[in-house]
Design goal:
Length: about 240
């Protein structure tokens, strides 16, 4: 969707300053994917590419895809001259433009909540994995629903507008973009790990395992809450 791309293009400049404990994320993902051989990995919704970069620095071949060309520009700038087996492409995470059985692993972080059809995306990722390949997903509950959630949302917007002004307020820009899409995004407020497991199993994946315990501490700020998960599953 164009409005989603526009929002993340705008967020690109400040995203790395606000994203949570980047180093711990690629450490955990590398631990989950640890194998003796080099892997071909797809990072769906790569953003500024910090997970893709961490995987490539561990010796893997990595392709990062994202809808936002400005995010990808940041990713390429950050990795220029590092001599990594890494490329960044503009593509839709729901339907990546690759042939079946292209990858040993697919990873994503905080992508499911912003997809119109997460189940379709998982079925496509299942096709793109080689037999025995691994999918690693992470997401969580990001916004409270009902009156409590509305009050919290508007409180954050007001505080942000006072500090940064209308044009620089992330909560305001987020609301203007995503509130108009709430009927099209089934997990706009986020999802619990159990819902993600059900999506995985219904899409043909097996052996789902939870890994958020690998973080020495919650990688998110306190106001994000504690309901995040990291789950892996296999294509049989």
């Amino acid at each position: 969707m164009q409005s989603i791309q526009t929002y993340w293009d705008w967020r690109a400049a400040s995203f790395d300053k606000s994203s949570s404990r980047q180093h711990s994320w690629w450490q955990v993902y590398n631990q989950i994917l640890e194998r003796p051989q080099k892997l071909d990995i797809l990072d769906a919704g790569t953003g500024t590419g910090f997970i893709a970069t961490g995987l490539a620095e561990n010796g893997h071949t990595v392709t990062g895809i994202d809808l936002s060309p400005v995010m990808l520009k940041q990713a390429r700038k950050a990795t220029a001259g590092k001599n990594l087996d890494l490329q960044f492409l503009a593509a839709d995470g729901t339907d990546p433009p690759f042939v079946p059985s292209s990858f040993d692993a697919i990873v994503c972080r905080n992508l499911l909540w912003t997809l119109p059809d997460p189940a379709l995306a998982m079925r496509r990722w299942h096709q793109l994995l080689k037999p025995g390949g691994k999918l690693v997903i992470s997401d969580g509950i990001w916004r409270s629903s009902g009156l409590k959630g509305t009050i919290k949302q508007y409180s954050r917007m007001l505080s942000s507008v006072i500090k940064k002004g209308f044009t620089n307020s992330t909560p305001l820009r987020f609301a203007l973009t995503y509130n108009a899409l709430k009927d099209k995004l089934p997990y706009l407020d986020g999802l619990h790990g159990e819902s993600a497991r059900e999506l995985l199993l219904s899409s043909g994946f097996t052996q789902p395992r939870q890994h958020d315990h690998l973080f020495p501490r919650n990688p998110y700020p306190a106001d994000y809450g504690s309901h995040f998960f990291v789950i892996s599953a296999l294509r049989p």
